[in-house]
Amino acid sequence: MVISDAVLTPPISVLSAVSGLKEKVPDLTTDQIVWITVAILVVLFAIQRFGTDKVGYSFAPIILLWLLLIGGVGLYNLIKYDVGVLRSFNPKYIIDYFRRNRKEGWVTLGDILLVFTGTEALFANLGYFSIRSIQLSFSFGLLPSVLLTYIGQAAYLRKHPEHFADIFYRSVPSTLFWPTFILAIAASIIGSQAMISCAFATVSHLQTLSCFPRVRILHTSKRFHGQLYVPEVNLLLCLAACLVTVSFKTTTIIGKAHEICVILVMIITTLLMTIVMLLVWRISIWWIALFFFIYIPIESIYLSSVLYKFTHGPYIPVAMSAVLMMVMIVWHYVHAKRYKYELKHTLSPKRAQELLEHHDLKRVSGVGLFYTELVQGIPPIFPHLIEKIPTIHSVLVFVSIKHLHVPHVDASERFLFRQVEPKEYKVFRCVARYGYRDSLDEEAEGFVHALVESLQYYIRDVSLYSADEMQNVSYPISRDQSLSREKPSGRHAVYAEEMITPIQSFSELTTLSNGLSNRLPQFQASKMNIAELAKIEEEQKFIQRETEKGVVYILGETEVVARPQSSLLKKIVVNYIYSFLRKNFVQGEKMLSIPHGKLLKVGISYEI
Fold it and tell me: Transmembrane ranges (predicted)?
């Protein structure tokens, strides 16, 4: 619904601002206003690739001027036309209104939603600003200005009720028209920018959770981490916004469509807040019940009013949301099935050893980075590669990139390693851990350098710890982060033979890892001799030499198809819908910033 909101907010905001031109140019037709709006929308979406960092500093002054202007105009109208409208704060009048209008009064509740649209974006803005700054700006800036604006318009309508259709510009003094018009255009663009950024952030989180096809996510600012740009999503939003503008031409139907976005986002937020209060904050059940039974009934009444006019516009965002939900469900369903298939068909240690020790297997110089989604075991695509090309690199690393439920992972804790037996074949498994706000958009050379450096630390640390010492230490590993039957290293990885106690926090893992690393000197003095230290150094140099000879990125090109005996629905979902999404969105090498000239793709089909 938020992404649908990002489609509707730019058209309704810009179109309503541009329509004010009719006050000064009465001959302007509706179609001309529509095409002016489309031109502004195209420019708005075109500049997204530059990010808000370049022009973001102008946003706050423009919005502040806008709020002061509309608040001042509202106060002017209140004093000039009818101060008596302040009596509307008396709840008696809304009760009288519903008594007088009954069903019609209930139906108009949906239109009232447009009074406070935009407040649903506050939760998205929490990713960019502090809670305190939003509370202060909302309470002392936005709320009083908007209240004065509507109070002033109500006072104006007491004297000029015939101007209800274009009340905003009609109520502005003629001397302030052009400043108001320019600021209205600027404010509508900034408001639209907020919802577009919200859509980008939502898609980024969905992709992290494997609920959305792969898209290219770019970070437009080096200083501010949360500023994202998604080219494919930006193009689709632009096309959808222009199509909505050209199709409906006025804000009437777009406004009706916007209503259901606002109220559904609010209801879903209330439900999620209730869950957070219950399971995370764990506050008194009476406070939770009070919160739930105040907000849900009120929001449900608004929702019922909107649904009464469902065919007059609200069906538009619902249809868009249904398409997005279908994409998310299909992608996640097939992605989970494929992962389980690979997990079920992973190579056993014995089978992996047989493959590596096969007499026909040749070793070539360089380092091979074999990308896989599996955290445990060797993927089934590896023996497929060996069967077709019985050759592997001198150093082979199975790389799995995983996102943790923490904002950031420190670079020193990025990689976890395990060596695959037999050790002389220099085959390793690696998990590269990223937080949900960490960027994967880094050059391949930098990634390789960090990985090789961490691998050298791993070789040193594993050699420094004896088996006796490892048996005397308990290693709390998270289930999501653990690699079964893995040995602990030191500075960059902590492993366990089995999960003994669940980890309480990510910082606990970091502390434990650093603590083990601090014990290295005493182990080194008591357990190692010169020959063993020289052997460690030679292994590290070997890794470095092979890296300098070249790095090849091996990527599995997996085609997923439904089994012949599957149902017709499953065949349609897997063979057609998922296949279409996979082929028409960003491929894996672009997501991982892999140089095209160093890429080796291995094709394989899975029947799920």
Answer: 32-50, 57-79, 106-129, 136-156, 176-207, 228-248, 260-281, 288-308, 314-334
Instruction: Supply the pLDDT for residue 197.
Output: 84
Domain ranges of the chain: 2-313, 330-342+554-607, 345-549
pTM over 0.85: no
2-313 CATH choice from 3.30.40.10, 1.10.10.10, 3.65.10.10, 1.20.1740.10? 1.20.1740.10
Say how far apart CA 280 and CA 510 lie, in whole Å.
24
Q: What is the chain's mean pLDDT, rounded?
A: 81
Residue 435 buriedness (CB in 10 A; 0-12 / 13-18 / 19+)? middle
Cβ-based burial of 323 (10 A; exposed 0-12, middle 13-18, buried ≥19)? exposed
* All residues at 6 or more sequence positions from 39 whose CB lies less than 8 Å from its CB, including other chains: none
pLDDT in tens, 254-282: 888 888 888 888 899 899 999 999 999 99
Using the CB atoms, write b or e for 153-181: b if 16+ within 10 Å: bbbbbeeeeeeeeebbbbbbeeeeeeebb
User: Given the DSSP bridges, would you call strands 415-420 and 427-435 parallel, antiparallel or unpaired?
Assistant: antiparallel
Q: What is the largest CA-CA distance in the chain?
A: 98
Spatial CA neighbour of 193 closest among 42, 20, 45, 330: 45
- Whether the Cβ atoms of residue 194 and residue 117 lie closer than 8 Å to each other: no
Q: Over the stretch 91-147, which tens digit does the pLDDT of each residue have?
A: 999 999 999 999 999 988 888 888 877 776 666 666 567 788 888 888 898 889 999
Range 578-581 contact pairs with CB under 8 angstroms and sequence separation of 24 or more: 578/330, 578/331, 578/334, 581/213, 581/327, 581/330, 581/331
Q: Are 141 and 67 in contact (CB under 8 A)?
A: yes
